[in-house]
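Q: Hi! First time doing this. I have a protein sequence and I read that you can turn it into a structure. Is that right? Here it is:
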Amino acid sequence: MGSDSETIKILPVEEKDIPIAIELRKLLFKEMGVPDEALIDNAYDNILQLYRNEFSKGRIRHFIAYNSYKEPVAIAGALLKNDFPYYLFKPGYYGWIIDVYTKPQYRGKKISTKLLQLTHDWLKEKGVNEAKLICGGSDARKLYEKLGYRPTWEMSLNISENRTYNEIIDQKVSKSSS
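A: Yes, that's right. Below is the predicted 3D structure, encoded as C-alpha cells:
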C-alpha cells in the first residue's frame, strides 16, 4: 500500500460519506495530539450533525482520495463562514479550510495539493474571495505557503486555565520543528 504507482481516485463527499470524513478528522486530531478531554462531550456527534446540516444547505464540501483498494487515504474540505467582521464585507462570507489530512504512507505524493485545489475551485464557485485555515505543523505550513497562503494579523490569548486549540497546535508545531 502507498506505492508511487498506485492509482488514487478523488471523489466529492456525498451525504452518505460524511462519517468517513469524521473518521479522518479523528485521525487528524489524534496525530495533532488533541486530548479527548479538550473536546466537548459528544464532539464527534456534534461534528457529524454540523456537517450534515451544512451539507444540506450547500455550505460545506469535502473531497476524499481513495487508494486502489477503495480505502480513504486523504481528505480536504471547506466550509462557508460568515462570522464578524467578515459578514460585513462582500460577499458576506469566506471559506474556512477544514480536515486537511493525509495518512502518513501517502504523504509526499501531492494528494493534499490536489484536494485543496478542488476545495479552492468549489469556494470560487460559491463566490468566495478568501480562504482561511489553521495550520498545524511545519510541513503543512510549507504546503499552504506553496499554494499562496500567508500568515495574517490574527492573535490569540488564553484567558483560562485550560489549554486552547491554538496552544495544542503550537505545541505540535514546536515539536515538529525541533
